[in-house]
Amino acid sequence: MHPVPESISTFLDIPMTLTAAQLDFYETHRFIKLKAVLNAETIAFFNREIAAQVASMTTELPALEDRTTYGKAFLQLFNLWRENETIKTLVMSKRLAKIASDLMQVTGVRLYHDQALFKEGGGGITPWHADQFYWPLASDKTITAWIPLQATPLEMGPLEFSAGSHKLLEGREMAISDESEAFLERKLRVTDFEHIIEPFDLGEVSFHSGWVFHRAGANTTADMRKVMTIIYMDHEMVLKNPENRNQSKDWETWCPGAQVGAVIDTPLNPVIYTV
Q1: CATH number of the CATH domain containing 110
Q2: SUPFAM superfamilies, alphabetically (predicted)?
Q3: CA torsion sign, 31 to 205 to 119 to 231?
């Protein structure tokens, strides 16, 4: 790992002020894409650092054609902030955390966990799903920053959103799978929720809530689509009784020691930003 240049550390502490229109857009649609959240120097630096960390943590994988749909979707590695002090600087960034806090209209955020999502050249789709199916969290005050580490054209499989679909209750009980893709593709097609498919410019970052449905297309290029994600929750988030096995596993993995009915205040869930 390499030390973070002072210019990048300073940049990551500079707040980004959102407009009333941007806050209203997120409140209505529960996702937003924001340009120039990160500058070219920051993206280039963390592209190298995160790619190196992912490579060091990736075990030998079966050939793409021998994997499940989920396995073809991406290489997935978690809590890089605990493995690498350099990457921790990005995950704990006040710049990103303040945006998350402002969009959710809360007085602060703590970390749920981070994850790198690298979609290989030739990698398959990421099926329709809602993240919060997996989370034992008592409110919907959750948000994920999806941070491409390169410009991401449509051919690379950028994140797609069903705008406003956090209002849809059907499909919430489905894990990410071929079945969720088929069911939600049919269901969302007959709703008024607009399907947003757009490329990401360099430095553009999206933020989406836990209950908004989203997917990603296949990476039809020969290059790796490198993405870092950071999942934030209200700093006063309470642990709920798990409603499925996935939520029980997440409790054990991402907030061990937290108690049902109490604020999730564990060493793995530090407060990153408060007003």
Answers
A1: 2.60.120.620
A2: Clavaminate synthase-like (SSF51197)
A3: negative
CA atoms within 13 A on the CB side of 229: 23
CA 172 centroid distance within chain: 18
CA–CA gap between residue 13 and residue 58 (Å, rounded)? 31
Structural domains of the chain, count: 1
Amino acid at 208: H
Q: What's the rounded Cα separation, in Å, for the pair 265 and 275? A: 18
Model confidence, pTM = 0.93
Q: Is residue 275 part of a domain?
A: no
Tens of pLDDT along 66-104? Answer: 546 545 455 899 999 999 999 999 999 999 999 999 999
Integer Cα distance of 27 and 189 in angstroms: 22
Token pair for residue 86? 């350099």
**Is residue 140 situated within a structural domain?**
yes
Domain of residue 153, residue span: 6-255
